[in-house]
Amino acid sequence: GKTLSAAHLEKLNEGQRAAVVHGVGLQDGGIAGPLLIIAGAGSGKTNTLAHRVAQLIIAGADPRRILLMTFSRRAASEMAKRVERICAKVLGDKAGILTDALAWSGTFHGVGARILREYAIELGLDPQFTIHDREDSADLMNLVRHDLGFSKTEKRFPTKGTCLSIYSRTVNAQAPLDEVLRANYPWCAAWEKELRELFSGYVEAKQIQNVLDYDDLLLYWAQTMGDATFADEIGGKWDHVLVDEYQDTNRLQATILTGLKPGGRGLTVVGDDAQAIYSFRAATVRNILDFPNEFSPVADVITLDRNYRSTQPILAAANAVIGLAKERFTKNLWTDRASNERPRLVTVRDEADQARFVADEVLENRETGMRLKDQAILFRTSHHSGPLEVELTRRNIPFVKFGGLKFLDSAHVKDMLAALRFANNMRDRVAGFRLMQLLSGVGPATAQAALDAAADSANPMETLSRFPCPARAQADWPKFVALLAALRSGASGWPAEIGQVRVWYDPHLERIHEDFEMRRADLLQLEDIAAGYPTRERFLTELTLDPPDATSGQAGVPLLDEDYLILSTIHSAKGQEWRSVFVLNTVDGCIPSDLGVGTSDEIEEERRLLYVAMTRARDSLNLVVPQRFFTHGQSSTGDRHVYASRTRFIPASLIKLFECRAWPMVAAGAGPHVGPRQLRLDVGARMRGMWR
Ligand code: ATP
Ligand code: MG
């Protein structure tokens, strides 16, 4: 068959090329045996995967029969664009049309949602099911917890968030509850019996209300694949299934893959065990390590050892950090990108200074011609960027924040979405409860009663419109019912109807929130976002599964051609690269996060997290070490300032690989500023204020 252009093939190294052409030219349509590419950061795994998909299309594979799964929708759409660029060289104009047909690409959860909708009736699901995000799920868990009386009688019963985490982990790891409790939540082990009861109540509530949570999207899909006829039919949709970042998949995802491609024929998975950072969500590195055995003896394994991303000093430091790991399959990488610039370890007094240092450096880089977009600030958890966001806003440096605290988590956005969701599925109690509470004169008891009545009724709209609500609700109730009726009739059409919701919601917004003007701007932005989706249902599904990124202040989403700095959690930075990378709070107590309770496996995962962060950098890397930082209620330390020291993952033996400096630079003779200083600014108070 046809192959990639010579120019493309020449650029690839031998291992990459072998992976790209694997199976091409085979008799039966080029569907090859199972292939694993396992290799370190920046070795071109994702790039190779894109070339492989392009190669398949060029050789005549039907793009509609290619399933490409990555860990975020952003990563999937970037991959699709890359495939198109590569195809264009060989196919010319036809490339766009063909790669548009690469419709089956996305995350496991996103693809699962589509599959389940398609087969809903046959699976006994109502096709109008709504999807609960984590917060909704926790709310529902709480309702059930309350109904069962656990929260009242048992003061020390785990919180709704903990209950949901335990449930989710049990489901995703496909492990027995007692095992999960013993291994991961020993302090909750005494509640096993109650938790069992709670979880079964939770599952029942979801079914009655016709909602699925995130985990259900995988769980139901995996269950479906357990049935031979479904497995044949669903697996038969695709000739090729390709998965990036395979090290961060869990048991359910592996079950789904083997269900789709039982002998592994047509299956390609790609990953790096040294970058496994999602075990807290039950991901298991065993999936990638066991792949060759799972499909023995037909599986082919390709390793890559050349890094194309980072300069030699950066790579040397990253290699050294991961070199101290207890266990690892992938080997050290090499590069020919020489440089004299070692990565820097920069000591600053506190988080306020850290923010100033980063802002200074970012602007300085921009002076030398590096766009803001070529620079990224990485941190462990979302709230660590608080002081930096303040500083950037003060200096008018635009930024986009990936991961962590989401636009969609804000109460006013959730209220709007609840209206759309409830109109779609009137059995969704979390949405209905949320909406009804907005109405003046409607309390929890009334809302419950109304929801019960609607749930029991064949015509819930009719029931709600006649519902005997309290006199004080006489003003708001009819308007609410009218809105629902309008949404359900679909008369205004999408996306105009979201404007209708906003008009209905506006007086509530003004009554509930003092800062309603700011929030109103968010809602207008939500309307803009909505306009990008073809239908209400697609909007709700995709928004829940993969929310848009938060942006600086109230500026709204910057236009694509504008320049802005990237702020991201390390977890969300997976797979990406920037010319200059800053890692905040590279201190013990942050990376690794919790010194008190970390098991050795957990500590090892934190080491890999630092490795992921360091290997995002192409030309310049700054690890910042504040001498004081603020911990946010981590279990062993509580909410307070602590004196911190450099992360244990860079012990004295590795220091020579870094350029160490203090900031601000001190005048000659003044001596380095080490040790605790006077508190100049209570960043902690400021940060608590920000996130309240
Ligand atoms: P990660 O583990 O971080 O996901 P990766 O292994 O997926 O990394 P890529 O993101 O695919 O690596 O590639 C890293 C960089 O190297 C990219 O800028 C890519 O364009 C470049 N690259 C990959 N292969 C080659 C090659 N053969 N020649 C030149 N550049 C390459
Ligand atoms: Mg990659």
* Number of helical segments with 4 or more residues: 29
Uncertain ranges: 552-559, 633-637, 667-679, 683-692
Strand sequence of the main sheet, in spatial order?
Answer: 12-11-13-10-14-15-9-18
Helix content: 40-55%
- Mind summarizing the main beta sheet? 8 strands, mixed
The number of distinct β-strands equals 18
Tell the overall outline.
globular
- Binned strand content: 5-15%
Mean pLDDT: 87
Q: Which value, in Å, is the CA radius of gyration? A: 26 Å
Bound small molecules, deduplicated: adenosine-5'-triphosphate, magnesium ion
End-to-end separation in angstroms reads: 60 Å
Structural class: alpha/beta
What does this protein structure show overall?
- By secondary structure, this protein is an alpha/beta fold.
- Strand 14, helix 28 and strand 15 form a beta-alpha-beta unit.
- Helix content is 46%, strand content 12%.
- It starts with 5 loop residues before the first helix and ends with a helix.
- Strands 12-11-13-10-14-15-9-18 form an eight-stranded mixed sheet.
- The longest helix is centred in the N-terminal third of the chain and has 19 residues.
- It has 29 helices and 18 strands.
- The C terminus is likely disordered.
- Bound molecules: adenosine-5'-triphosphate and magnesium ion.
- One of its GO terms (molecular function) is hydrolase activity.
- It is an enzyme of class 5 (isomerase).
